Amino acid sequence: MFNNSTPAAPALLGILVGGRGSRMGGVPKGLLRAPSGKSIVESLVDEFHAVSPGSPVVLLGEHEAYMGLSLTQLADTPPGCGPMGGVHALLRVAAKEQRRAVLVGCDMPYLDRQIFAHLLHAQPAALALAPRRDGHWEPLCSRYEPSAALPALAECLAAQRHSLQGWLTAMGTSELSLSAAQLAQFRDWDTPDDINS
Left, alpha or beta for 184 (phi > 0: left; psi -120 to 50: alpha)? Predict the structure, then answer.
């Protein structure tokens, strides 16, 4: 359990890279060049570290293509259950290190440090925090207290429920309030057409 009487350790950022990039012609999406000129993953790390210098970062999913980034890669636990396996791996490490966990997707090239600042510092008592778009949670820009999130996730996995939306709802996630301009930063790159749009 987290002790609210002591300063919290820096958050652990997990970047979900579990997809195979099939819609990008086999190119790992996290290695595409963001507007910053760096890969999307490197850009996300830079923006996160601008708000939380030195905080640890892990990649959720194991791919040889990302080996050159010198970031720890976590295998899905358990494998074969989609993004929830990566989230579960992230929360287990965060719980062990007594850190809050922050989750983002590797295909979101426009997330900036202001978004990370909101995510890290808004509603400090929230056990889970995420924005909503079009009536749905945005799980790939979210923050968690592992002591609360892990049991709820384990229950979903045991029941073979692999929906991040269902998990976030069942956990009583708090909504992160963002402006329309900030929500527009969640535009992701799923296909080559997205890069040019």
Answer: alpha
